[in-house]
Design a protein that fits this description.
It holds the Pfam family Csd3_N2. The protein is an alpha+beta fold. The protein contains seven helices and 24 strands.
Length: 433
């Protein structure tokens, strides 16, 4: 009897253990199954890595080298070093004729070579050349040969700058983080109100503008929004506003800051000779009238049309050298002498806009050095361009006046929030009051 009871206990114990382990096994098996299913759902699809893109091309299976163009280095020199044949380079140069002139590859400009190693030798698949900060030229050799120009992504950022002038507007803007381009824009904007050759220490400025930025670097000024310049304690407000004919600059009362003509048609270093009835000519060595204003500037400095008009002359003449004459209306004409080169597209009968490039400073004709001789006619008579009383451009028209005043208030509020840098110049300014 006892043996039967003991057997029954053993059987029951074995069954209990079997049940326990079956439960545990099944439970772990289910967990494992769940894990396996979950794991399968992740791992059955291969991990997708984002491709590496450079200049719009996938470069994961390639190598990349960046360089700067050396003096006298050509596209042939660059590509031959990456085992591109002379024949292929010739074909590439022909293909690029209507896209980019390969002869214009310039020293110190960046270029990038995308290549593969073939038999331990680098073999170029693409050459990318950057002629300026905003665009690049792709010479694609990878598949079918292609040459094309692309623009880099640009972001526009609002910036402001202010300062108190110690010696010149140019130096102060650069000292406070501005650029020569910004200086030129401000000088052009105020050119008819302020003579920047007579700027005073203690004069102050604020400029609100938008800047083009590529890859975190500023590459140019998109536009000036507004500015305030305090000249000898007199504030001059400038507001950029478009009333249908493009952006212009207006003062507090809505009057245009621009006259019908640019004050200076060239960025000059100095006025080397003024309008006079009697001047000793440096080449002819005799006294004669000088019916123009000479602006000394380096050869190649751009020359701009002083106002809208029609070209009446664009040619070489014995004494005037290469020169352009423009009729602006029935009253005014201007002429630009001694150019090294007349700009492309500037031909008699063609129309030009104020500020349009028309040529480059030189010393052609009867000239002792590089300069622009600027001549001005009023009612058929040559007059002194520095003294002629010119009419203003169009003010804000009545239809836009309400919008202008509202926008002026918005810009002025922003300008008022721009502080002047703390400096000893404030003491100087206070002493002038």
């Amino acid at each position: 009897m006892m043996r039967k009871i003991l057997s029954a206990v053993v059987v029951l114990a074995v069954m209990s253990l079997a049940y326990f382990y079956t439960f545990e096994y099944n439970s772990i098996g289910e967990i494992h199954k769940k894990i396996e299913v979950k794991s399968d759902s992740v791992s059955t699809e291969p991990l997708q890595l984002a491709p590496t893109i450079l200049y719009g091309m996938v470069i994961d299976s390639f190598q990349v080298e960046e360089h700067a163009v050396k003096r006298n280095q050509s596209i042939s020199d660059i590509l031959l070093a990456y085992n591109v044949s002379h024949q292929t380079i010739f074909q590439l140069a022909n293909l690029s004729k209507n896209v980019f002139d390969v002869r214009k590859i310039a020293p110190n400009k960046k270029y990038t070579v995308i290549y593969q190693e073939e038999d331990s030798f680098p073999s170029a698949r693409a050459l990318v050349y950057e002629p300026n900060p905003e665009e690049y030229v792709v010479f694609n050799l990878k598949d079918s040969m292609k040459v094309y120009v692309e623009k880099k992504p640009v972001t526009i950022q609002e910036k402001s700058i202010s300062g108190t002038i110690q010696s010149s507007l140019y130096e102060e803007i650069l000292k406070n983080g501005g650029t020569p381009e910004l200086v030129d824009l401000v000088a052009d904007m105020y050119g008819w109100q302020i003579d920047f050759t007579k700027i005073y220490p203690g004069d102050q400025f604020k400029v609100l503008y938008r800047e083009r930025v590529i890859e975190g670097k500023a590459v140019g000024i998109e536009e000036i929004i507004g500015a305030e310049l305090v000249h000898y304690n007199n504030p001059f407000l400038s507001i950029a506003f478009d009333q249908g004919d493009g952006v212009d600059y207006f003062d507090e009362e809505g009057k245009s800051l621009r006259k019908a003509f640019l004050r200076y048609p060239v960025k000059f270093t100095r006025i080397s000779s003024r309008y006079t009835a009697k001047r000793f000519h440096p080449v002819q060595k005799r006294y004669k009238a000088h019916l123009g204003t000479d602006y000394a500037a380096p050869t190649g400095t751009p020359i701009y049309a002083a106002g809208d008009g029609v070209i009446t002359k664009a040619r070489y003449e014995k004494y005037n050298g290469r020169n352009v004459k423009i009729r602006h209306n029935g009253t005014y004409s201007t002429q630009y002498l001694h150019m090294s080169r007349i700009a492309s597209g500037i031909n008699p009968g063609g129309k030009v806009k104020q500020g349009q490039l028309i040529g480059y400073v030189g010393a052609t004709g009867l000239a002792s050095g590089p300069h622009l001789c600027y001549r001005f006619w009023k009612n058929g008579r040559q007059v002194d361009a520095m003294k002629v009383d010119l009419p203003p451009s169009e003010p804000i028209v009545e239809d836009y006046l309400t919008n202008f005043n509202r926008y002026k208030g918005f810009v002025k509020a922003k300008l008022d929030k721009i502080p002047y840098p703390d400096s000893d110049d404030e003491v100087l300014m206070a002493g002038m009051q």
